[in-house]
Amino acid sequence: MGKTWGVAGEYEGAPVTPYPEEGPALDERVELASMTVDGTRQTRITASVAAETEQEAREIGAAGIAELARNLRLPAEPVRVLVTD
């Protein structure tokens, strides 16, 4: 199964009303841990990701977080993706 990694995506801007749930479900290896909004300037979404390597965790986590960000109408690309073990 691998190990659990923390992955965070930082986006410019604040979320707006989310879209209704649509599209495919999140990857089962990604579990939302928290979301922090800094006024209207920045949003940070953190998730726990099950993966074998740091690179795999980055890829899986970034894709899962991007899906959440899309539902919150945040920019398509994060400013930064961070991985911790």
What do these coordinates show?
The protein is of the alpha+beta class and 85 residues long. It contains one helix and four strands, in the order βββαβ. The protein has a four-stranded antiparallel beta sheet with strand order 2-3-1-4, with helices on one face. β2 and β3 form a beta hairpin. The chain is globular and about 35 Å long. The mean pLDDT is 87.
Radius of gyration: 12 Å
CATH class: Alpha Beta
Quickly give the CATH architecture.
Answer: 2-Layer Sandwich
Fraction of residues in H or I helices: 10-25%
Short synopsis of the structure:
The protein is of the alpha+beta class. The chain has one domain: 2-Layer Sandwich (Alpha-Beta Plaits), CATH 3.30.70. The chain is built from one helix and four strands, in the order βββαβ.
Secondary-structure map:
Blueprint: E1 3-12, E2 30-38, E3 42-51, H1 54-71, E4 80-84
Antiparallel strand pairs: 1-3, 1-4, 2-3
Entry keywords:
85 residues; Alpha-Beta Plaits; four-stranded antiparallel β-sheet; 1 helix; 4 strands; globular
